[in-house]
Amino acid sequence: MAFDYSLELDMPLEVVGELKRKLTSAIRKALRRAVAWLRTESLKRLSQELGVKKTALKNRFRIRVSRKGHSARLWVGILPISAVKIGAARQQEGGVKVRDYFFRGAFLETVYGEFAIWKRLGASRHPLKKQTIDFSSEAERIIRQLEGQLNRKFAQWIREALQ
After folding, report:
1. Residue 16, SS3 per DSSP
2. What phi and psi, each to the nearest 5 degrees, are found at residue 132?
3. Is the same domain home to 57 and 108?
4. Which of 8, 24, 26, 153 makes an SS bond possible with 161, Cβ 3.0 to 4.6 Å?
5. Which top-level group of life is the source organism from (predicted)?
6. pTM of this prediction?
């Protein structure tokens, strides 16, 4: 048994060119929309999961669309974030509390020109270590979870843009 899949177009070249322009435009619009949605949704979910304000993470999610609009990237800065940036830090007996995090033996101070939560590494005054929160594994997991939804939404947005 053989199948023949051939397509003969009885359309003028102008119509084919117009269809190509519309399809390219629809893909560009859907691509920009998809990357913006991924940024917004991953930022929202990550801030909820970490118990951190979105503003503390917002500058770590950047969108880059190519000049021709054929590709788009979402860059996520996953280096640990300074603990003092996630909320109001309070010095307590035995350490510093920020949101749901407690840093035992830490203190709030401006050191090396930077206001942060610091902890001594030994018995002497120095060296000090700035206290940070690592969120790289959570960010990666959340973005992987959103991939399936992103593909479905991308197809839906292309269809909407073509109509």
Report:
1. helix
2. -130, 170
3. no
4. 26
5. Bacteria
6. 0.76
